[in-house]
UniProtKB/TrEMBL annotation:
Highest taxon listed in the record's lineage: Bacteria
Lineage, highest ranks first: Bacteria, Pseudomonadati, Pseudomonadota, Gammaproteobacteria, Pseudomonadales
Composition skew (Polar residues), residue ranges: 7-22
Protein name in UniProt: OsmC family protein
Entry-linked Pfam families: OsmC
């Protein structure tokens, strides 16, 4: 896996993935940023959410659950001192669908956390406390 980062002025950078997708990163205004994109640590948090959500949906599809939506909310706490690393992250999955079985949703979240989500497992090994919760919403 590869990526490139190119400075685009002030505290702004264009990040390009090895697969050719780009995203604009920027620092906060109090550090010279212009709010042109997410902060790098926000991207790290979004990457974790994407990785885990991908796993949960993949597992639910394989278990033939009729999911119509999956929304994941992440909240993170960071250290007060530099480096301001993540100390805690909580992921809350809101899974919507028809006739969803709670044991399947619980299993999908657990498997992602404990076995499949590389980002989550890597951050935990670095000392970040990661917790998960879920709720199920029914559609007719």
């Amino acid at each position: 896996m590869k990526a490139t980062i190119d400075w685009t002025g002030n505290t702004s950078f264009r990040a390009t993935s090895g697969s050719g997708h780009s995203v604009q990163l920027d620092g906060p205004p109090d550090h010279g940023g212009e709010n042109l994109g997410p902060r790098p640590m926000e991207m790290l948090l979004m990457g974790l959410g994407g990785c885990s959500s991908f796993d949960v949906m993949s597992i639910l599809k394989k278990s033939r659950q009729d999911v119509t939506a999956c929304h994941t909310e992440l909240e993170a706490e960071r250290a007060d001192a530099v480096p301001a690393v993540f100390t805690r992250i909580h992921l809350h999955f809101v899974v919507t669908g028809r006739n969803l079985r709670e044991n399947q949703v619980k299993r999908a979240v657990s498997l992602s956390a404990e076995k499949y989500c590389s980002a989550s497992i890597m951050l935990e090994k670095a000392g970040v406390e990661i917790t998960h919760s879920y709720e199920i919403r029914t559609t007719e």
